[in-house]
Design brief:
The protein has one helix at about 20-70, and strands at about 80-90, 90-100, 105-115, 120-130. With about 130 residues, it is α+β, with helices and mostly antiparallel strands. InterPro entries: N_methyl_site, Pilin-like, T2SS_GspI_C, T2SS_protein-GspI.
Length: about 130
């Protein structure tokens, strides 16, 4: 085989072999690494968002269950604060309930805050009337 047969495909001089330089390979690797890191970060963000949405749904279930209990009691809740636990799908959440008087003595304001490890997940507020 002659040197002319091994010439570069880029129209180079005879005897010059084609291929990538070290700089070209390093640039390609850097671009690939940046794309992979961006994909990893977006995947982590999607996973965190799905986890947060699941906890929000479970928190809303706990809060709505507590509000339903108050409505089914068919009596005006007493003014004050209380904390109870709520287990949903194997996750234990704390329900902090605050009952406050209103200007009309026939109604009470009820704030239900659902917490996980001291962090607020969801808060629901309603007015409960005398039945």
């Amino acid at each position: 085989m002659t040197a002319a047969c091994a010439s570069s495909g880029r129209g180079g001089a005879p005897g010059v072999f084609s291929g990538f330089t070290l700089v070209e390979v390093m640039v390609a690797l850097a671009i690939t690494a940046i794309a992979l890191v961006a994909g990893l970060k977006s995947t982590a963000a999607l996973t965190n968002n799905a986890d947060r949405q699941g906890r929000l749904l479970l928190g809303q279930l706990c809060a709505e269950n507590r509000m339903t209990e108050l409505r089914l009691a068919r009596q005006l809740p007493g003014v004050g604060d209380s904390v109870t636990d709520c287990v949903q799908a194997g996750l234990t959440l704390q329900i902090a309930q605050a009952v406050r008087p209103t200007p009309n003595p026939n109604f009470r304001r009820v704030d239900v805050t659902v917490l996980e490890a001291g962090q607020q997940v969801v808060r629901v507020t309603t007015i409960v009337g005398r039945n």
